[in-house]
Amino acid sequence: MESSIVISEHQFATHYLSDWHTITPLADGFWSFENLMLSRIVPPLKPMARSDMRAIINETAFRAFCLLHNNSNRIRRTDVLNAIEVELSPSLLYIQRFSPSSHLQTENIDDNFRKEAGNLVFRLLHFFPGSTPTILRPTFSGCGLLSQCEGDVIKGSCLYEVKAGERGFRVVDLRQLLTYTALAYANGSLSFQEIGLFNPRTGLAWKKSLEEVSYSLSGLRLTDTLSALVDRFSGASASR
């Protein structure tokens, strides 16, 4: 009997380890090596705001970046600060959905918050320039136990996930990108050939072709790896 469970891409990437180990048995070794090969885009960003504000800073900065990205005029700091003000309340509401115990309010926002968020926005605009064909917040249709979800950025032929925490990239980030890719494949809408990660806070980035990632993780062609993931989405065999 088919499972009626509906989960997010984050849950599948994080918790369904037996499926990942079966389909991508070489992932941990591959990612240990890839973490030594990251590209330095900009120096690490020095924190200015309180550490408990980081999630709301990151969300506000990404939303402000999306608001400004297609602006054909030269973007000034006042434009960035205005976009931050516009996106502040919806960002706060979004974060509180996942952290209901959070007591952050708009009155907690100070100049250090705005400066740090503004710096992240400028770094995102630099890495994802408006001159490059770009899709912001691409939507991926659900499949089986996976619900519809939203990625971050498709820049040219690469699907990027933006991670703005102070931690390094992890294998779960790679799994999240592969989940999006498998959903696009299942829907016949796979339009990118590479996957990547960018952290505007640490200034590090990574990018690799999907074919190379597939062979490195499973020894299989990309279509075979993606088909195996889609089978897990579609069937009741997916288990933690």
Outline of this structure?
This protein is an alpha+beta fold.
Describe the structure.
- The structure is a single chain.
- The chain is an alpha+beta fold and 240 residues long.
- It folds into 2 domains: 134 residues, no CATH class; 77 residues, no CATH class.
- 48% of the residues lie in helices and 12% in strands.
- Helix 4 packs across helix 6.
- It is globular and about 50 Å long.
- The two termini are 18 Å apart.
- The mean pLDDT is 91.
Topology:
Blueprint: H1 9-15, H2 17-23, H3 27-34, E1 39-40, H4 54-68, H5 77-98, H6 111-127, E2 134-136, E3 139-140, E4 149-150, E5 153-155, E6 158-162, H7 171-186, E7 194-199, E8 204-209, H8 210-218, H9 222-234
Parallel strand pairs: 6-7
Antiparallel strand pairs: 1-8, 2-5, 3-4, 5-6, 7-8
Helix pairs in contact: 1-7, 4-5, 4-6, 5-6, 7-9
Features:
alpha+beta; 2 domains; six-stranded mixed beta sheet; two-stranded antiparallel ribbon; 48% helix; globular
Task: Specify the structural class.
Answer: alpha+beta
Arithmetic mean pLDDT:
91
Strand proportion, as a percent range, falls in: 5-15%
Low-pLDDT ranges: none
| Shape label | globular
